[in-house]
Amino acid sequence: MSALALSRPGYEPPAVVWPGETAIEQPWVVWAVWVFTLSAALAWSAYCIHQGGDPDIDIGWFRIKVSCNR
Prior knowledge:
By secondary structure, the protein is of the alpha+beta class. It contains two helices and two strands, in the order H-H-E-E. It has a two-stranded antiparallel ribbon. The protein starts with a helix and ends with a strand.
């Protein structure tokens, strides 16, 4: 007999269970990631200015892009 013949029809929950919902978005995590990303972009801009460049920061919905023009 194969494994498919022995399996029960229908859905069975997984054997490993975590308490609570695992796919809940935590607002503080989103905020912390955004602040870290923004501070890294500002640090890179400061480094660009220190090296004699002209930084250009482009903030979009899901990205922050910093380019250094010399």
